[in-house]
Amino acid sequence: MKTTTRVLMLVLMLAFVAGIALTACHDPGPAEEAGREVDEAIEDARDAVEDLDEEAEEALEELEEGD
Fold it and tell me: Could you point out which of 26, 29, 40, 67 has its C-alpha 20 to 30 Å from the C-alpha of 57?
């Protein structure tokens, strides 16, 4: 679970840095689109980490039940 926490922290840090970088842009056209794409990618990564965490917890529960 530590690895999952580290990955989630990395994703959140990247989102924070991307947010700061994109707020400094004055051209809302391409930068805004890039920001949306970054947001979507970060959201997808966060969802994937949450799914992996849930799957890992379920697998551990199954292993514990088997003993």
Answer: 40
